[in-house]
Write a structure and sequence with these properties.
- The chain has 660 residues and is of the alpha/beta class.
- Helix content is 40%, strand content 17%.
- Strand 6, helix 6 and strand 7 form a beta-alpha-beta unit.
- The model has no long low-confidence stretch (mean pLDDT 85).
């Protein structure tokens, strides 16, 4: 649409600073993202503005390597910096509170199970004293493989467990691994006892408590007394007595809990920490050795930059999160004379979200007309006798003309246009209006709407509340929402989204994003705005670069970035429309201030995704080749056409599932 987006400091000249303010870059992206003088988004892997990687340079560099968007970019430096940030926050809080225990952050690999991410966490974690968390048998095997050669790295085992899971953990501990299974239900304690007897060991293990303190937000139901994991207070008491009778109480060394995911209100964290710490102290009094207090996950990410207690944000910093936990645990333990425990948090989302982003290309747009096609209107008015011209068409033509009168009331004109368009649709459906007349009515209606918006660009009357969104452009984008941005569709998660270039130009359009999958839900229609969530995003007009002799127009590349996607999006994505995994590249800052690709993980081929859904690519190839040969033999196609078809078949099976 023609109405420019609301921008900060509207009287000031457009600049990189203005662009950063418009998209809230400092609020959600600091210290990792900025805008260069040439109007491109840059990444600061170490949080230092002096070191920058230009995203447009990376995308263009990938193109020379025949790697086209959509592509996931992972920045190892950002991941390591984020890990160090969490480490420092807790170390500083421990020093300030004179806390006598230690701290370990463990990474739940379910947050992003991609091997390259897990290996980077492991490698940096060795230096920072981090560990890993697993929640299933496949994850347990992955965790054991990841920690081969680093036996001192903690490996915490959550989730429901069977006998095989328990026995594997017990044997791994016996082999020297620092592994700690967590009992989620009483039956798992029985499995632990049985395995301990069978292998003549006293294992170290923990139990998960089901807290009364519930979480908040979308995952509030995963915690609290209705949560599916953990033992109730009475079950914990019974478990202590059971372990005492079995002479294995000395193995109970950790109390665990799960508050929830993306906890946006720090008060929720405080309540849960207080309850769990009181429970920990009571277990110590009952004779359990304990020593470790695992507060689970929940530290959130400020996706929309609002720094508020809302689903897509948080109202606390990493430093406040650490300080509040350390202070509360220390205070409660000191009050009852219990030694300060070693604190564990399972921070996944807050650890990896910033290190990953998705880049895709806009391949076209649908723009509602700002001026009606006068030739189309003339044709609609003259294709029938004057007496037979549909009244709604005359009314819309009259309404459009009235907009240019000095005494015009835009509200009245728009209401008249809405009424006329409704009548036009009814007449067309009943067969009393030609398709040309209908097209002319729509052109006039959208042009009237755009004119009204221009007249009220500063502040829209209540009558036009949804008009800006209805007239927003639709930007067709080469990616799959269901594959690469599943939380946007599934839970209305807001992610920071903005162009990665042309930011030295003021955006003059507003639009929504539509992916290239099916025509139902593949759209992004919620964005972080300056005044809360908005249904449209400020965008630049696409620049035409020519046609193919027909109505289709080709455009200069326009690249969009979706930021903070490192957590969950890659793992949760599905195979909607058989669009597979995107390319993923690991970008590293070099010593000279440039960048290089440390790792390139090519996306799924058509052959790969067909196998995922039990199609046999070799059988497809044989079948199609037989059909091609038959068509050539019957002279339905030429031999050259048959060769071309075979080449398309072979290249297609090994090609990228996205547009190339």
């Amino acid at each position: 649409m023609s109405v420019p987006p609301e921008r900060p400091h509207a009287t000031a000249p457009w600049s990189a600073t203005t662009a950063a303010e418009l998209y809230g870059l400092a609020n959600w992206g600091s210290p990792y993202f900025g805008i260069s003088d040439r109007g491109t988004v840059v990444v600061h892997p170490k949080g230092d503005p002096a070191d920058a990687i230009d995203l447009l340079d990376v995308v263009e560099g990938l193109a020379t390597r025949h790697l086209t968007p959509p592509v996931v970019l992972r920045f190892s430096g950002v991941l390591e910096h984020r890990m160090a940030h969490i480490r420092t926050a807790f170390d500083d809080a421990i020093t300030a509170a004179e806390y006598q225990g230690g701290y370990t952050c463990v990474y739940p690999i379910k947050v992003n199970q991609q091997r390259h991410i897990c290996e980077e966490v492991r490698d940096a974690g060795q230096r920072l004293g981090f560990g890993l968390e697993v929640g299933s048998k496949p994850e347990l095997l992955a965790g054991l493989a990841l920690t081969a050669g680093v036996p001192d790295m903690p490996l915490i085992c959550n989730g429901f467990k069977d006998e095989e899971f328990i026995e594997t953990a017990i044997l791994a501990a016996k082999m020297g691994r620092k592994i700690l299974p967590v009992a989620e239900q009483p039956s798992e304690l029985e499995l632990l006892v049985r395995a301990a007897r069978a292998h003549d060991v006293t294992p170290r293990f923990g139990i998960r408590a089901k807290l009364a303190s519930g979480g908040v937000g979308r995952w509030a139901g995963s915690g609290g007394i209705r949560g599916k994991f953990g033992l109730s207070v009475s079950q914990i008491l019974s478990s202590v007595e059971y372990l005492r009778r079995e002479e294995l109480l000395e193995g109970l060394q950790m109390l665990h809990c799960h508050i929830g995911s993306q906890i946006y209100d720090i008060r929720t964290v405080k309540f849960a920490v207080s309850e769990l710490t009181q429970m920990y102290c009571e277990l110590v009094k009952l004779g359990a050795p304990m020593g470790i207090l695992d507060l689970g996950g929940g530290m959130g990410v400020d996706y929309d930059g609002s720094q508020s207690a809302s689903d897509s944000s948080v109202n606390y910093s990493v430093e406040q999160y650490a300080a509040d936990i350390i202070y509360r645990v220390r205070s409660i333990c000191d009050d009852v004379g219990v030694a300060h425990p070693h604190i564990v948090t399972e921070s996944g989302r807050s650890l990896v979200a910033h290190s990953g982003l998705l880049v895709f290309q806009v391949v076209g747009s649908r723009v509602f007309p700002e001026e009606p096609d006068q030739e189309l209107v003339r044709k609609a008015l003259t294709e029938v006798d004057e007496a037979d011209v549909p009244q709604p068409l005359l009314d819309l033509e009259d309404a459009y003309g009235r907009l240019f009168e000095e005494t015009c009331d835009p509200v009245e004109v728009y209401h008249d246009a809405e009424h006329a368009l409704g009548e036009a649709m009814s007449l067309f459906n009943l067969g009393y209006m030609t398709i040309t007349a209908r097209a002319a009515c729509e052109e006039l209606y959208w042009a009237i709407g755009n004119r009204v918006l221009q007249a009220h660009s500063d502040e829209l009357p209540e009558e036009f509340h949804d008009l800006r969104d209805r007239l927003a452009d639709l930007y067709f984008s080469n990616f799959s929402l269901f594959q690469s941005l599943i939380d946007s569709w599934g839970i209305d998660q807001i992610f920071p989204i903005m162009p990665i270039h042309r930011l030295d130009e003021e955006p003059t359009r507003r639009g929504t994003l539509a992916d290239i999958t099916c025509d139902s839900d593949g759209k992004v229609e919620r964005f972080a705005g300056q005044h809360g969530a908005e249904q449209t995003l400020p965008l630049h007009a696409l620049i035409p670069q020519g046609t193919n002799g027909g109505p289709a127009v080709e455009y200069e590349p326009y690249y969009m970035g979706v930021f903070l996607t490192g957590a969950y999006q890659e793992t949760l994505g599905d195979l909607h429309n058989l669009f597979g995994d995107t390319h993923a590249v690991h970008v590293v800052l070099d010593e000279d201030g440039g960048w290089y690709l440390e790792e390139v993980v090519e996306g799924d081929t058509v052959r790969d995704v067909l196998r995922y859904v039990q199609f046999d690519p070799a059988a497809i190839r044989r079948s199609m080749r037989r059909e091609i040969e038959s068509a050539v033999a019957k002279k339905r196609i030429t031999l050259e056409e048959g060769v071309s078809m075979r080449r398309f078949l072979d290249d297609g099976l090994d090609g990228y599932t996205y547009l190339e």
